[in-house]
Design brief:
Elements lengths: L1 E5 H12 L13 E7 L2 E7 L3 E8 L1 E4 L1 E6 H10 L4 E6 L5 E5 L2 E5 L17 E6 H14 L11 E6 L4 E6 L3 E7 L3 E2 L4 E6 H8 L8 E6 L3 E6 L2 E6 L18 E6 H12 L9 E6 L2 E8 L3 E8 L7 E5 L1 H7 L8 E6 L6 E4 L5 E4 L6
Antiparallel strand pairs: 1-5, 1-7, 2-3, 2-6, 3-4, 4-18, 7-8, 8-9, 10-14, 10-16, 11-12, 11-15, 12-13, 13-26, 16-17, 17-18, 19-24, 20-21, 20-23, 21-22, 24-25, 25-26
Helix pairs in contact: 1-2, 3-4, 5-6
Length: about 375
Amino acid sequence: MNVSIEQSVLADALNFVGAAVSKRAPKWVLRCVLISAHDGKAGLSGTQLDITAARTIQAAVNRSGKALLPLDIVAGIVRECRGETINIKTDDDGMLEILAGDAKFRINTADPAEFPATPEPEGKTHIKVDASKLFAALDHAIPATARESSHYAISGILIESDGNDINIVGTDGRRMSVSTIKPQAKTHDEFAAVVPADAMQMLRRIKAHEDASAYLKFNHDRVSMLFGGSTVVSSLVAGSFPKWRDVVPDETTDLATIEAGILRHAVRQAAKLTNEESRHIKLTIQQGQAVISSSSPDSGEAWISCEADYDGDAIEIGLDPAFVLDAIAAAGDSDIVDIMFNDATTPILLQSQDDARTVIMPVKLE
């Protein structure tokens, strides 16, 4: 194999596929990236078996072939070669040779045939969606997904369809993010699959281009997600996802609206005076005004007042500030956040102009 690739393109590709590579993998081959060069393109793949990331990039292919790139070494070399074209080839001794400007490296490698194959889903469920809308939904769902839980299924993100809309749901048991998007094309009726949050985070590393589409393909135990020249293939999470519709309030009695930027600023300020024992903030909503307050025996107290559109009875609700900030993270400062609730003890609903809904369980106030 002999291939030349622009440094910035190669560095970006290694960064993407390298997210699927474990530095502590028991087998050396799993700490490598496979490069395959032919027909003016180079394909790079990294895997941890359950999840594989791949990207196809433009390249000058002088000789077709495959090679294993030890990720730590090669990524470091490429990262330090600024504005250069990187030449990668294998020599007659089976060594990997990298040329970058005045620098030359000969690196031990192994037979690329040892790299595990990635089985593609063979199911009939294919979906085409607007990539920017998918990524916006993931920006809401990923932070709400459980990192550690005895309920294994909530360590993933639910993607389901009733045959029309697609719902993307993440939860950790104390909050839940729900986004609904319409497919651009589909070959399915009803389906539901739980995708590992790690796989979704890898997909989210890609920058969405305007008017671009993403393609998702499912079978009973695997999903393939394709955007541009990048692909993430993952096993699905086993187990039953919670019945999320039972959690989202069917209707609420009260509505307050606040500008996202104002709410974000106030919550961040109040969060400065919380601690491990008292992590929550108190949201007091009254006519025309909201007050976000907090207190800590070690630090003191805080009260931040802001304008709110509300004409109901005054109410005090305890909330985790991190949950509120995650819920409005994607909202622009001038976007309006709807805060919908029934009382101080039942779930509240936050929704901004991107149509994502976040359900948050209130914290009991002392």
